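Q: Please design a sequence for this.
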């Protein structure tokens, strides 16, 4: 009879161990569930100079230039300059636009305080911007506001690669400091 008590005691201990093991196995884990973690992802800061930005802009323009379009150049110096030459009566006439770039709270670049000249003739800015807005084939991330005399570069709409988001942090030409953040959104 002693062996029956020991047998059922051992059976009870084993059953209790299995029940406890199953109980702890099906309890939620205290570690975070990766799929429930929210946020944009890691962010990197990229700082550059006018010289490097000029090279990057020039390469972008050459890569995306379409046949038959008016050629232009963008140059960062004391201001942001957009220059082109328009043929009139067989002679090239310089068209120059100058802007002061600033960064807004959303990380986009605003080109403000424009001056525009055609040769030495100063042009009325709202009319020129309205013409550009209507007739120029601009990237979808460039928005022209002729009434406010501004051009907006929606930096977050610039697609470097899928899963990456770009924002401007600083764009100070006088200090040669252009800083951007790159966020991985995947």
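A: Design:
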């Amino acid at each position: 009879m002693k062996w029956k008590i020991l047998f059922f005691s051992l059976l009870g201990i084993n059953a209790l161990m299995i029940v406890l093991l199953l109980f702890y196995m099906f309890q939620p884990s205290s570690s975070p569930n990766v799929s429930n973690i929210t946020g944009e992802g890691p962010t990197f800061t990229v700082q550059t100079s006018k010289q490097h930005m000029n090279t990057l802009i020039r390469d972008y323009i050459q890569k995306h230039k379409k046949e038959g379009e008016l050629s232009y150049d963008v140059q960062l110096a004391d201001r942001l300059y957009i220059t082109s030459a328009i043929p009139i009566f067989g002679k090239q006439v310089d068209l120059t636009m100058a802007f002061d770039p600033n960064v807004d709270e959303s990380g986009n670049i605003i080109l403000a305080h424009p001056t525009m000249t055609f040769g030495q003739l100063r042009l009325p800015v709202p009319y020129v911007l309205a013409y550009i807005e209507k007739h120029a084939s601009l990237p979808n991330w460039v928005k022209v506001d002729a009434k406010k005399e501004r051009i907006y570069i929606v930096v977050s709409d610039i697609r470097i690669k899928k899963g990456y988001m770009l924002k401007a942090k600083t764009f100070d030409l006088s200090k040669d400091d252009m800083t951007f953040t790159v966020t991985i959104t995947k």
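Q: Thanks. Anything notable?
A: The first helix runs from residue 2 to 25. Residues 57 and 74 are 7 Å apart (CA to CA).
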